[in-house]
Amino acid sequence: MTEWITSQALVPYEDALHRMEARAADIAEGRADEAIWLLEHPPLYTAGTSARPEDLTDPDRFPVHQARRGGQYTYHGPGQRVAYVMLDVGKRGRDVRRFVQDLEAWVIAALAEFNVDGHIREGRVGVWVERPDKPPMPDGSLREDKIAAIGIRLRKWVSFHGLSINVEPDLSHFDGIVPCGIREHGVTSLVDLGLPVTMEDLDVALKRSFGQVF
Question: Catalytic residue at 151?
Answer without folding.
Answer: no
